[in-house]
Design goal:
By secondary structure, this protein is an alpha+beta fold. The protein has 20 helices and seven strands. The strands form two sheets. Strands 1-2-3-4 form a four-stranded antiparallel beta sheet. Strand 5 and strand 6 form a beta hairpin.
């Protein structure tokens, strides 16, 4: 059924008859950005046209008051924006405290670090949430659009009530020997790479069969080429003239935050405000909820998933196995971590938090934990060699201990061993351009991509990846061996078989 506009004194109220016979009520209005909005407000018998009209009038008053606030930020907050329990003045930092205090999963702790690094010191994050303007968001996006991407994130001093009480989880960090700026660290890395390249090339001169040294030098040369773009403004200008580079590729070469990262920051802020409204019974207009067509909407290019080829997987695993066996005390577990990553397609935290009690060797099963959903799922020990490596690594460990254990603390590892990244660089990335370099995280994409190319259905790939919905998995559909067009051509071909006889 189509929508019916009631008109007259109920102008802006619409109805729609549902299949079960009830009437759904909608209201239509223009939001603070003058964008037309149609919103469902309820169904009969709980909702009537008079109730819908009252709700429409209330929303219009809120939008009018919000516009007046933007024009006169120093004026008192209108009563319409201070309803019910929302009597206290909250800041975005306060709302972030609510969210992260109630959500203490591993993934939310990573989000908290991201929030503290990108938001907590911004002026708009410390002022009344109602007074955040479009200009604040615009300035923030401009700043992030020119910001260098820095992998180091530290918890900032968020001076709020919950922080003072010590209620929020904080990661302890070791003090840094040097407090260098990003540019200074990159210059130091560039200089060190140059020294290492010279040493490696001398080794290759003496032994031309030393492929490891040759590949390491090759990788470092590519790395220094990129660092030169970032350290030398004149060299960086050459990139801007290259019309073959997209914005995202250009930003990657220059070390600038990607549009996808900035879009994720807006989503994080929006999630925090939505949570406060829903669970703290607040009534805050969510200005970070940016939809397609909005002024601040960020379009992100659909990029094909990156993955290792079968030859690259073979080269990497052969080297990891070699290193694990000749250096068992320091790198004995890197081969099994790699095997599990390339067979279960599980995320880093999931793999590194496997306990021996999670492993069922009799039935070749491993109980894994999805730290995004905080739910467990079962995966398979899919190969005899993987099983043998598990048995070897378990040894005499107790049933409740972690499979991959930090020898100093007895707890699970918190990151993939750096040796894995080093091996990936000189076995795989040395033969790729910088824009196509892979990380250990791509092992998950690698499994999914090869399954898709082998013709495995998206539904089955979603089960392996433990995706809640196949919509998340659809990115791999483009790698399927046949397209719908080809399938249709084959089908029509069968219709026309033997028509000439």
């Amino acid at each position: 059924m189509s929508f019916i506009s009631l008109g007259g004194r109920y102008s802006g109220v619409l109805t729609k008859t549902l299949n079960n016979g009830t009437t759904a009520f909608y209201i239509k209005y223009r939001d603070i950005n003058s964008k037309s909005v149609r919103k469902k407000v309820g169904e009969s018998p709980d909702m009537t046209k008079s109730d819908a009209r009252e709700r429409l009038a209330e929303i219009k008053k809120e939008i009018k008051a919000q516009k007046e606030l933007e024009q006169n930020p120093n004026s008192p907050i209108p009563k319409i924006l201070l309803k019910k329990s929302d009597k206290q003045v909250y800041t975005l930092n306060d709302l972030a405290d609510f969210y992260f205090y109630d959500n203490k999963t591993k993934s939310s702790r990573e989000m908290q670090n991201k929030y503290n690094y990108h938001f907590s010191q911004e002026l708009f994050a410390t002022k009344n949430i109602h007074l955040i303007t479009e200009d604040d968001i615009s300035d923030f996006l401009d700043k992030k659009g020119a910001q260098r991407a820095d992998s180091r994130r530290s918890n900032s001093n968020n001076i709020t009530k919950l922080h003072k009480e010590g209620s929020l989880p904080k990661r302890k960090r070791k003090p840094k020997a040097k407090n260098l700026t990003l540019i200074e660290r990159e210059q130091e890395e560039f200089d060190q790479n140059q020294l290492n390249i010279e040493k490696l090339e001398k080794i290759v001169e003496l032994n031309s069969e030393d492929w490891r040294s040759a590949n390491k030098a090759k990788y470092l040369k590519e790395k220094n080429k990129i660092l030169k773009y970032r350290l030398c403004p004149e060299t960086a200008k050459l990139l801007l003239k290259d019309k073959t580079l997209t914005i995202d590729k250009l930003n990657s070469l220059r070390g600038i935050l990607s549009r996808k990262s900035i879009k994720e920051l807006l989503l994080l802020a929006s999630t925090i405000v939505t949570y406060a409204n829903r669970h703290k019974k607040l009534n805050i207009l969510n200005k970070f909820n940016i939809q397609k067509g909005d002024k601040f909407y960020i379009k992100v290019d659909n990029v094909k998933p990156r993955y290792l080829t079968k030859e690259e997987i073979h080269n990497y695993l052969r080297e990891v196995k070699h290193i694990a066996h000749i250096e068992p005390k320091t790198h004995g577990y890197i081969y099994l971590i790699s095997l599990l990553a390339l067979s279960t397609a599980a995320r880093r935290d999931t793999i590194l938090n496997i306990k021996i009690e999670d492993i069922d060797l009799a039935n070749n099963h491993i109980e894994l934990r999805n730290f995004k959903t905080e739910k467990s799922f079962t995966s398979t020990i899919s190969n005899k060699e993987i099983k043998e490596e598990i048995i070897r690594l378990i040894g005499t460990k107790v049933h409740s201990s972690f499979l991959f254990e930090n020898k100093l603390t007895g707890f699970s590892l918190t990151a993939f061993p750096p040796k894995m990244k080093e091996i990936l660089n000189y076995t795989v990335n040395c033969n790729r351009s910088y824009l196509n370099w892979l990380t250990i995280k791509e092992f998950r994409n690698t499994v999914a991509s090869h399954l898709a190319m082998s013709g495995v259905s998206i539904m089955h790939i979603a089960q392996i990846l433990n995706h809640a919905s196949t919509r998340t998995t659809e990115i791999y559909a483009q790698l399927a061996p046949t397209t719908a067009k080809e399938d249709l051509a084959n089908l029509v071909g069968t219709f026309l078989e033997d028509t000439d006889s």
